[in-house]
Amino acid sequence: MSQLLTTWIFWLAVTLVVFEGIDTVSRRFGRHPLLNPVLWSTPLLIAILLATHTDYKTYYDATMLLTFMFGPAVVGLAVPIWDRRAIIRRLAVPIVVALLAGAVTAFVSVVGLMWLFGAPPELLASVAPRATTTPVAMELTAMLGGIPALAAVATLFSGLLGAMSGRPLFNFMKIDDYQARGFAVGITSHGIGAARAFQTSVSAGTFASLGMALNAIATSILLSALSLLF
How far apart are CA 183 and CA 103, in angstroms? Predict the structure, then answer.
């Protein structure tokens, strides 16, 4: 058994089984927001690693294939965006306005509040890019003098919160345009929100992917400009 715990195929299989198992439960209950697979698979895998006394490096090395496949999967999100380029071109003005409003709001809503409560600069730099994707957030945080590991946690939390609260909030606000819903989720909840949006409709997922990509660019420009001023 101990030898099995060091093999990559075992941990790859465990990861896929855990995620697919929770995703199956999520589908059975109509994609209830509280049954997000990322929300439950992460702590469950941590519990399995602790129970088997497996260190993170062993697990990370064993699941490198999934990490590698993440890159092509993100690039693949460009395909539905390209297919809908005519619609996106027609909506260019509202898209830019929503992007600027979303990027500034995502920054001010967290950094502004934490600054008012006296949070140190290192902590502010760690949460400032939390609405972008994890790799972008970690790079921006390192550039700003923050803690990349904390930025990854803040980004994950932001993505989960948006993916879980998006649908109930949009329904409450009676926003039924899936393009607008998807774009808002992509700006605030990056890849996790985009994955949730694709479960709703291809149109929502496409605009969520667009929002995720554009917000990563806008936030990078915004934070780079602010870093030069302060």
Answer: 12
**pLDDT score at 230:** 67
209 vs 194: CA distance, rounded Å: 6
* C-alpha to C-alpha distance for 140 and 98, rounded to whole angstroms: 22
> How far apart, in whole angstroms, are the C-alpha atoms of residue 150 and residue 130?
10
Q: For the whole model, what pTM was predicted?
A: 0.85
The more confidently predicted of residues 7 and 2 is 7
38-60 confidence digits (pLDDT tens): 899 999 999 999 999 999 888 98
CA 152/CA 180 separation, integer angstroms:
27
pLDDT > 80? residue 1? no
First-to-last alpha carbon distance for the chain, in angstroms, is: 55
Judged by phi (left if over 0) then psi (alpha if -120 to 50, else beta), residue 160 lies in alpha
In this structure, the chain runs to a length of 230
